[in-house]
Specification:
Layout lengths: L6 H4 L4 H7 L36 H25 L16 H20 L9 H18 L17 H14 L6 H18 L18 E2 L12 H17 L6 H15 L11 E2 L2 E2 H4 L2 E2 L8 E2 L2 E2 L1 H5 L1 H11 L34
Antiparallel strand pairs: 1-4, 2-3, 5-6
Helix pairs in contact: 3-4, 4-5, 4-6, 5-6, 5-7, 6-7, 6-8, 7-8, 8-9, 8-12, 9-12
C-alpha cells in the first residue's frame, strides 16, 4: 500500500479550510504537471501553494477536536459495524444504492480524508495506516459503483435528484486522497465527476436538468409559489458544488468552461431575491433581471424549508457557505475568482448588526 501523507505536508492544509472550502482548491492552469497515472484531465492538489495555519486559536482547536473525534468514530466503530462484507469483485458491500447507502459513506470519507491529510487524525484506537486503508475502500467503492463506471442495475447509483451531492463528496475525498489511489480509482473518480457535471449542463434558466423536472426556483417571477415551503437554494447549491469541483479538478477538460458557466448559473439562482428581478446588477456577464426566472430567498436573506422559516438552512453550509466556497475561495487558481452571489450576506432578523466577514487562511 502507499504510505500515508507525511506530517510535513499534512500541516499545509488548514483543517477549517478543508472542511468548509476544499471544493474551492482551484489549481493554476499553467501548472499542468499531471501525474502520469492520473485519471483523465485531473490535476492533483498543489499542496505547496497552500498557506499554513497551525489552528492553535480557540476556533482552530475546537475544529480540530471535532474533526479528530468524528473521524475516529466514523472510520473506526462505525465502519467496522457497517461494512462487514466484500463482494466478489473486491469492493465493500454498500448495502444499497439509496441516500443512506451512498451519501453517508461519502460524507464519512470526506471527514476522515480531511483528518488524515491535515494530520488531525487521532490514531488512539485505529492506526493511521489502517484508517487510510478503510478510507480508500470507501472512496474506490463509491466511485466504482457510479453508473459512469458500473453497468450493473443492482449496484449502480447516479442520475438522481441528489446524486450530484454524493458525487461531490466522493470526488472531494478522492481528490484530497489522490496520492493514495491507484490508476483505476483515479479514472473512476474522474469519470463519475464529469458524468454528473455534464448532466447538469443540460439545464437552462428554469430547469435544473434538461427542460423538465426539477426547477431552479421556489417562486416564479410573478410570485407564483411552485414548491411551497421548500426553497430550491439547497438543491441548486449542492448541484453547483460538483460543477465547481469538476472545473477546478480538471481545468483542461473540454467541458470545463461549460461546467464553470453552469456553476455560476446555479449559484445565482440559489441566491435569487425579488429585488434582483428588477435591478440592474450583472454578475459574471449574467444580467440578473433578464436571466432569472424566479426567486429562492427573501430580500433580507432568509428562506423557508421543511415548511418553516428555517434558520439552519438560511445559514447552513449547504446554502450560504457553499455559495462562497464554490466561487470565492480559489486560493491556488491563477485567475480571478468569479463573483457568484447576488448580494452580500444578509443580517439575520434576530441580529442587530452584521457579523464580521471570515476568511479562510
Amino acid at each position: 500500500m502507499t504510505s500515508p501523507h507525511r506530517p510535513t505536508r499534512r500541516r499545509i492544509l488548514t483543517t477549517s479550510f478543508a472542511l468548509g472550502a476544499s471544493v474551492a482548491l482551484g489549481l493554476p492552469a499553467t501548472a499542468r504537471a499531471r501525474d502520469a497515472a492520473a485519471g483523465g484531465d485531473v490535476v492533483p492538489v498543489d499542496w505547496q501553494r497552500l498557506g499554513s495555519y497551525p489552528a492553535q486559536d480557540a476556533a482552530g482547536r475546537r475544529v480540530r477536536t471535532i474533526l479528530a473525534g468524528s473521524s475516529r468514530y466514523l472510520i473506526g466503530p462505525w465502519y467496522a459495524s457497517t461494512y462487514r462484507t466484500y463482494l466478489p469483485d473486491g469492493y465493500i458491500d454498500l448495502k444499497g444504492t439509496d441516500e443512506r447507502a451512498i451519501r453517508l459513506p461519502a460524507m464519512a470519507a470526506v471527514a476522515t480524508t480531511t483528518a488524515l491529510v491535515t494530520g488531525v487524525y487521532d490514531p488512539a484506537t485505529l492506526s493511521a495506516a489502517n484508517a487510510t486503508i478503510r478510507t480508500r475502500n470507501l472512496i474506490i467503492t463509491l466511485a466504482a459503483r457510479h453508473l459512469a463506471n458500473n453497468s450493473s442495475p443492482a449496484t449502480r447509483w447516479g442520475n438522481g435528484w441528489q446524486t450530484a451531492l454524493w458525487a461531490y463528496y466522493t470526488a472531494l475525498a478522492g481528490w484530497l486522497f489522490w496520492g493514495e489511489l491507484d490508476d483505476k480509482a483515479r479514472r473512476d473518480i474522474a469519470a463519475m465527476t464529469a458524468w454528473e457535471a455534464d448532466r447538469l449542463t443540460t439545464g437552462n434558466d428554469l430547469f435544473l436538468v434538461g427542460t423538465s423536472g426539477h426547477q431552479l426556483y421556489e417562486k416564479r417571477r410573478d410570485g407564483t409559489v411552485v414548491t411551497p415551503g421548500d426553497s430550491k437554494a439547497e438543491e441548486d447549491n449542492w448541484s453547483a458544488a460538483v460543477l465547481s469541483l469538476a472545473e477546478v479538478m480538471m481545468p483542461g477538460h473540454p467541458r470545463a468552461a461549460a461546467w464553470k458557466r453552469r456553476n455560476l448559473e446555479l449559484l445565482l439562482a440559489a441566491a435569487a431575491r425579488p429585488a434582483d428581478l428588477t435591478g440592474t446588477t450583472t454578475v459574471n456577464g449574467i444580467r440578473l433581471s433578464s436571466w432569472l426566472r424566479g426567486t429562492n430567498i427573501a430580500d433580507d436573506g432568509t428562506l423557508d424549508n421543511h415548511n418553516i422559516l428555517h434558520p439552519l438552512y438560511t445559514w447552513s453550509p449547504s446554502t450560504r457557505a457553499s455559495t462562497r466556497a464554490s466561487c470565492t475561495g480559489w486560493p491556488t487558481a491563477a485567475r480571478p475568482a468569479p463573483r457568484c452571489t447576488t448580494s452580500p450576506a444578509s443580517t439575520p432578523p434576530w441580529s442587530t448588526s452584521p457579523s464580521p466577514p471570515r476568511t479562510a487562511r
